[in-house]
Amino acid sequence: EQLAKGYVDLLDGLPFGEGREYRVTFRELSAKDSIDAETEAERVVDTRNGPILIASPSLRGVQLLRRQIAAVGEIEGPLSMLQIGQLSERDLSRLMVAVNLRDTALAGKLAGDKGRLGAVPE
């Protein structure tokens, strides 16, 4: 129900000043967000055969998540990795589920619009 209204409440909250913030609102990702998340999830590793670029899918997921957060209460998004690290495990899991549900709903809407005239703006 919360997600349908455009937000989700954290269970443990994110530290802010003397208190905690709980209400998370989201925003749509841009192509730049996706490219930046991919870049930040890559690391150069030195091997016997020279340096290679390694990408971490899990780190990319967290990078995308932090960019999808418009705000947590009074805290403006995107969140930093330090702020993401301050979340409890259950709040992090809650946010990951929320963005997955948002993505699934968007995919369902796009699938429902497929083939309908006027579904895609010109």
In a few lines, what is going on in this structure?
With 122 residues, the chain is α+β, with helices and mostly antiparallel strands.
Q: Overview of this structure, please?
A:
This protein is an alpha+beta fold and 122 residues long. It has one domain (3-104). Helix content is 43%, strand content 30%. It is built from four helices and six strands, in the order ββαββαββαα. The protein has helices at 31-40, 57-68, 81-85, 89-113, and strands at 7-16, 19-26, 42-47, 50-55, 69-72, 75-76. It has a four-stranded antiparallel beta sheet with strand order 1-2-5-6. A two-stranded antiparallel sheet has the order 3-4. A hairpin with a 2-residue loop joins strand 1 and strand 2 (19-26). The longest helix is centred in the last third of the chain and has 25 residues, at 89-113. It is globular, with a radius of gyration of 17 Å. The protein starts with 6 loop residues before the first strand and ends in a 9-residue tail after the last helix. The model has no long low-confidence stretch (mean pLDDT 88). It comes from Salmonella enterica subsp. enterica serovar Java. Pfam families: Gp41_Mu. This is Mu-like prophage FluMu protein gp41.
